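Morning. Coffee machine broken again, so started the prediction first thing and wrote up yesterday's gels while waiting. Chain of 385 residues, entered below exactly as on the submission form.
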Amino acid sequence: MRAYRPWLPSAILFAFFIVQSGAVTAEKAPPATPVAAPPILSLKMDRADAVQLPCSFRRGSDDDKGATKTGVIPGCGDMAATTAQASDYSGYLWRIDAPAGDAKALPRNFRTADSAFKEMDDQKKVGVDPSDVPSRAGLNSLPISGSAEFSVPAFHAMLPVLRAKAAGDIYIVDLRQESHGFMNDMAVSWYGDRNWGNLNKTRDEVIRDENARIHAAKGRSLIVAALDKDKMPIDPKPVRIDSAMTERELVEGAGLRYVRFAVTDHTWAKPETIDAFVDFVKNTPSNSWMHFHCQAGKGRTTSFMVMYDMMKNPSVPLKDILHRQYLLGGAYLAYDPSVSHPTKSWKDDYDHVKACMVAKFYEYVQQNHADHYAVPWSVWLKQRK
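Came back before lunch.
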């Protein structure tokens, strides 16, 4: 890692200004020839440098190739077809996941199992009949909740809500593979394209990377920025980091328990990760409260809330479990874009796999709940193949 250079933040801003405004020359430039629609440029940071040296620029119009490269939707469980190279997605920017914000505001997408169903705005897209109301059998009594990543103030706003509902220990179940933590009470993460900055790293490797980056931040000036809908930085600027801590430090400092399952964003969790989760649910007292979260509180959070719901309510039909977790505010995991249209986005491949795998996990529960899941998910999955 390169040594810190105090002039770098100013240099970065200067370089960014140059890109946005045109060109800077030592001599007076000749009149420019008008051109139509100049290419959109985006700032790319040096992934290997914690102080984020400008490394290269890329065109915003560059093609975004799907992970399969071929555009062919992989078969159910064909995870090898969707494996990408980690070097393509290394982190380059501290993204603001949640600003410090209002000290009384709950995290985005917060819900508990007994929350009221919501009017979802994408029902037509995902193929849900708005007139269909799923069963709530066994749902209201589940000791679980979910949300997006929380800032430090939002975490403290959430605590009394969880404590009022919990009859036992409270576990914060962190589902993020990407390195993340808190700086100046903001929730931040080390962002790479597709949010895959730690792609193919083990849980232990993720935690080591995360601890090193977060603890090295205090007392430094780092560029942090929120991202727009096109994943471009909004007003990137250097910020002096006066406080920095990991999520484990925040959670355990408040007297709660912290558990980490490192799941790559947009994907179905690896078999060994689900094995660990099933063991966790089996061996944790039934009155323990589990609060699940990922970055947005949608895909990964819903996946694990769905699996928990299945394990605790094996008699409830798959359709009802997927529908009710969606109406609580999650993602609709049965959505399979390959059924309705050819591949349009790289995410379609992963949505297809998730739709297949969540149905397989329900089948696993049906066959294994009676003997308390003596056969691990990974073993059962291999036997099914």
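The first strand starts at residue 41 and ends at 45. Going to sketch it on the whiteboard this afternoon.
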